[in-house]
Amino acid sequence: MTVRAQARVNVAAISRNVATLSAAAPGSAACAVVKADGYGHGAVAAARAALSGGATWIAVVTAREAEQLRAAGLTEPPILVMGALSTEELDIALAARADIVVWTEGMLDAVSARGGGRVHVKLDTGMGRLGTRDPVRATGLVRRAEADPVLELVGAMTHFATADERGDAFFGEQLGRFTAWVGELRAAGVNVIAHAANSAAVLRDPASHFDLVRVGVGIYGLDPFGVDPAAQGLEPALELVSWAAAVKPIAAGESAGYGRRFVASTDGWVATVPVGYGDGWRRGLTNNAQVLIGGRRFPQVGTVSMDNVTVDLGPGTGVSTGDEVVLLGARGGERILAEDVARALGTINYEITCGLLPRVPRILHADGAPV
Ligand SMILES: *Cc1c(COP(=O)(O)O)cnc(C)c1O
């Protein structure tokens, strides 16, 4: 162990997860979503792994994210920038030859005025964020893009608000609105790539797949439904690993950490592990997480500080200074999922990996082999 805490990212797992999701949406192209630095896994590595797993499109949210991928040598695949862009950001996105999402006439005009580009028209079928709510206006935008010689109409899209809430009716309502709009476009002979599905929708309903699926969370082996990725055939691609930097006896009545939130009830041992909220291991995990050492589960105890956490090793311990400590990952039949940590914090798995800060180096490997 050469660094205090590291995120080990298995790019081969990302490739396999893309293949798994693609197999669930046969006949649709796979667009790998690598926004927010690939959900914390590393955007460039995630994009490369996704392409080798069969993705043919990449999606990000910001113009800079598109620029970064192009600069890293991803010159070929179409890159869709899904976010709202200021005029300055639009310039950056177009310079990166990215596809732009539009939902007003002014946005089409702005792309046109900059010499043109590839556009996707977004219908807001109920997410209530970006896109026009009006299918008539959306069709008008499609027509306007088609008629403009410097614009290339590429896509017609929407985004689901509740795809991950199995059994809710709103998903069907959104899907119905989008299906009707796409049906009208097709009937009018418009040639466009229709896309709507995120990872949850891919697994939930084939009727949502259309021509292309935008898969994010699932390609990282995080469960779109927040429960267990293995149930979907998905493999977590990221492990968070640190080490026992100090192993010390603790007497009954002695404490560890700020505020004395852990006081030993019996004589025993405590390990100090150099990872904390300054690495993205959130303070809300105070007395609220477990770790794996030597394939055994131990409670993390006491306050999570900026740079360290403490682990209760119990009365008799085989743990030594230098031993590996796994905060996210599987060892010896035990596993700690991002979903488990998310549940403890009252959040979602997305936020656990996205929340790992730059102080944690991302170490890439392919099933253990260096890349
Ligand atoms: C993030 C995002 C996705 C991917 O969603 P996942 O739930 O991570 O699969 C798809 N489409 C849009 C518009 C997004 O912002």
Automatic annotation (TrEMBL):
- One Pfam family matching this protein: Ala_racemase_N
Required co-factors: pyridoxal 5'-phosphate
Report which superkingdom the organism of origin falls in.
Bacteria
Modified sites of kind N6-(pyridoxal phosphate)lysine: 35
* GO MF terms held by the record: alanine racemase activity
Q: Which PANTHER family match?
A: ALANINE RACEMASE (PTHR30511), ALANINE RACEMASE, CATABOLIC-RELATED (PTHR30511:SF0)
The name this protein carries in UniProt is Alanine racemase
Q: Where is the Alanine racemase C-terminal domain?
A: 237-365
Catalytic-site annotation from UniProt? 35, 258
Sorted alphabetically, the keyword list is: Isomerase, Pyridoxal phosphate
Catalytic activity reads:
L-alanine = D-alanine
Pathway assignment reads: Amino-acid biosynthesis; D-alanine biosynthesis; D-alanine from L-alanine: step 1/1
Q: What family does the database annotate?
A: Belongs to the alanine racemase family.
Enzyme Commission code: 5.1.1.1
